[in-house]
Amino acid sequence: MSAFFGVVDYARPARRSPRKVLKTMARVHGQTLARSMQLYADGWVGMAMLPERFQQQHTVLHFQDDRMVLFFEGEIINLASIAAASRIPLDQAREMSIPEVLCRAFEHRGPVLLQELDGAFRLGVWDFVEKKAFLATDRNGFRPLYFSRDNDRFFWGSEVKLLLAGLDRTPEINAQAIRDFIGFGYVFDDSTFFRGIEQMPAGHFLEISDQGIAVHHLDEGEAYGRIVDKKEAMNRLRNSAITGIKVVADQERAGVLLSGGLSSRLLAVGMQRLGYDPETLTVAEPGSAEAEIAGQVAAALSARHGFGAISAEGYIDNFSRAVWLGDGLLNGLHNHLLAALPLLREKPMHLLEGTPLIANPFTLPELKIWMRRKWNAQQRLWLAEKLFPAVIRDEDPWLPAGPLFRSEVYNGLQTPDDRLQEIVSQWDFSAFSPAELLSRTGMKFKQRALAARQTELLRHYVRVSNPYNNFRYTETVANLPEHWLTAEQILWRQIITELNPALADIPWERNMLTLNVSRVKEYGWLGARWLHQLFGWFRQNEDSDTPIQHRPLFDFNRQVQSHPVVRSWFRRTLFDKLPDELINRHAVRKLYVYYTRDNQPVVEILARIMTVNLWYQYFVQGVNPAEELFGVEEMAALR
What we know:
By secondary structure, the protein is an alpha+beta fold. The protein folds into three domains: 215 residues, Aminohydrolase, N-terminal nucleophile (Ntn) domain (Glutamine Phosphoribosylpyrophosphate, subunit 1, domain 1); 230 residues, 3-Layer(aba) Sandwich (Rossmann fold); 83 residues, no CATH class. The chain has 24 helices and 19 strands. The chain is globular and about 70 Å long. The C terminus is likely disordered.
């Protein structure tokens, strides 16, 4: 789905026709895509969706009858049970689109339906009879939805840029959110770079009527019971993958976004075992370990394999494209998935991606201690330090985090330590079990902030699903004897080996170890990382002295240091048109000198500053992105 957006106008009569407002908002993505918009509008409310750029002719985005209209984007795993509970015969449900099934179910059951949906989705409902609108996303917030109140009007959209097109004026800059982004890599508290535009919190839905806006909390539901042993954990993980594959592949052409890792490998071998002809797509730098390993997996499965090569020149173009598509909330450094666009333009498909939901730093002993005691303020801060990336502190000599901002802006902001204290003070530890709290915080600050936003880039062009959205890895922590990360990898290793033993001899991403060597079982990913840091290379097993070289997906740091075109673009994007009223140019230059002279690992921070710079040009100054982002025809329509 390219975009989901809408407006409610409380004024009588409406200040402007909701239909006209929707058309204005749709033109953000160009006139060509706007002509494919599906919308509903009356004198009070309007909502609309734009299809994916490469799959416009296939998409069913909404359903309308004489009672209500429902717009939907995403996947529902338990659609059959929803239909049965709503007294929709299964044979009829199979002939209906997902929006139609959900619309019939909502008419039968009302808002309680939202408590029972499992999957990753965004939806909007307008009830003609009750004169109420409902907006909802999944419990985990994998499909973000933003909203803003502008006098008598309420706007929402899947992208911040859609709201900016509808608002009368550009909101004030949220300097604290920008500081958080530069220091941590993402923003907190469901905020954005604009004051007054917020992300709808995960696990909630909005009810909009002439009485105002009510926010309702979704129940945790009963779908996630405790996993009692490793066998059950394996069954749930396997079933999650298999169900997600069937939901997509039974309806349309599907392919796996295949990396060198385990999660996407399980999806590919699952397609094969279900009887589908596997089709895979890998995005990597030619010659990298990821490209080599993915190619071996595809060959072992006899899959049709496409390869999107990441080049230095393409990476530069996609950096700006990622900032524009991600509303500045995703570091443009993480744009590598966009290298798949040339292949997807020729052969659009519904992609299955296997990004793990949680990347967690806890060890089992720490978790057991956590489960037995209450937490004071210092322990909460310790939890925050564990969950967040390295906190950038002002006293670090190589990174003047505070002076990056102009003094008049910086004086009103909190230090990283104060910011952490404020965030953790708002956490309610008594409301959830340790596993639930770990799941919530881990997913919010890891998956939602990075992996989900990377996937959102591709969703502008083709449909993308993650079959693992309904499997909680944290449920296995207290039940498996190994380290948490090791336990996670063991589940995948054993399932993959069971489905296709030939894949056990192919190494997996980042550590270049095969699935059946003892080093993986004993140390898992953390052990591999430790070996890499200690020796700079990996050994295949304990008895081998042959080092295995590993090249990353795309070494941006190496490109900046050695590639003259990338280096020139890096300097230009970092300094040209830098917002002087917000960023201290002298502090940025000092940071850049540290980087170039001492090769300090601060390229991630510099890329965040570049992201903020481009965001400021696109969304504050109103500079149109380069024509190559969407094509000459599209950009001409935006002028």
